[in-house]
Structures are given as C-alpha cells and as structure tokens.
Amino acid sequence: MKHSNKIKDSNNREGKKVRVLFVCLGNICRSPGAEGIMKQLIEDHELQDFIEVDSAGTSGWHEGDLPDERMRAHGAKRGYDFLSRARRFRKRDLDKFDYIIVMDSSNYTNVKSLASTKEQLDKIHMMTDYSQQYNHDHVPDPYYGGASGFELVLDLLEDATEGLLQAIKEKHAFA
Ligand code: 4NP
C-alpha cells in the first residue's frame, strides 16, 4: 500500500522527528528486536523521515555487543536483520526521546527512577500497552529460556509495534 506522508499539523513540532527508544534489561534480546521490527515497519510505511528509533538497556552488561545470537536467528527466520549495538540507558534519553517504551515492570521502575519531571515521566510506556491481539502485561525476558520464549517475544513485538505506530500516526497527525 502507498502512503502519503505529509504532516498535517504542528503536533510534531514543526517537522522535528518523533523519537522512540525501546528499553529492556540487557539491550541484546527484547529491545533490539523491537528496534529492528519497528524500523522495518516504518520503512514499509515510508515514514523514515519522520520517526527515529533506538534501543537501550537499563544495565550496561552487554555494552557494545550485537543482539543475542538466538534473537538474531529467530528474527532472521521472519526476515529481520537485528544489527544494533547494545548501550546503557542514560538519564539524558528522557529528554532526547518522545516515547520511551519499556518491556517489563522492572525496566519501568529503573527508567522511572531517573525521571525528574512530569514531562519525562509521561514519556514512559509499557510495550504491551500497545498490544492489539495479545493480553500479556509485559514482554517476558527470554534470556534464560528456550526457543519458544524468543518466538513469543517476536509475536508480542510484532503486534505491539503495529499498535505503537498507529498511536504515533494518530497523535502526530501523519496523513
Ligand atoms: P534483554 O534480555 O533484557 O531482553 O536484552 C536479557 C539479556 C541479558 C541478560 C538478561 C536479560 N543477562 O542477564 O545478561
């Protein structure tokens, strides 16, 4: 489907990109998956000039690493190439990004502890708040589990990124 991507009003601050940051614990499984899937979706909708995506971890344990091999392999089976490098979430991300999307309540608590204004707090959302077909209240950490955990993560992320993109399009009035 072809989309016309004119920005209709000033909600997106006169052409400034909408910035989305996905956050999990290690930044090697869930959040890089969300980043890769969201980037693909944005390209499919030809919105890459309007929306920017990144990911980070609340820990710095895997700083500089590629996504976990299992995450990459499961993603590849669905046509994704997850190639981001892990980095730690920083307090300044709360100013730079418009949407900070966390995977579970522990991520939520950790990110929230760095927020100092209502504006920053209001940017933090659970990924599953954007779910359309699933009823999970968080995206479960797959790191210590098996293949089915990674497949579930991908199912949840594919579903919620669709919901998130829809919400951004409505809020920021992309035609
Ligand atoms: P993620 O998964 O938060 O989805 O990237 C994890 C990755 C690494 C570890 C835990 C969770 N770890 O304990 O090293």
Task: Give your account of this protein's structure.
- This protein has 175 residues and is α/β, with parallel strands linked by helices.
- The chain has one domain: Response regulator (Rossmann fold), CATH 3.40.50.
- Helix content is 38%, strand content 12%.
- It contains 6 helices and 4 strands.
- It has helices at 30-44, 69-77, 93-96, 105-112, 118-121, 147-172, and strands at residues 18-24, 51-57, 99-102, 124-126.
- The chain has a 4-stranded parallel β-sheet, with helices on both faces.
- Helix 1 (30-44) links the parallel strand 1 and strand 2.
- Helix 1 (30-44) packs across helix 6 and helix 2 (69-77) packs across helix 6.
- The longest helix has 26 residues, at 147-172.
- The chain is globular, with a radius of gyration of 15 Å.
- Mean pLDDT is 93; it is low at 1-13.
- Residues 24-30, 57, 61, 141, 143 line the site of 4-nitrophenyl phosphate.
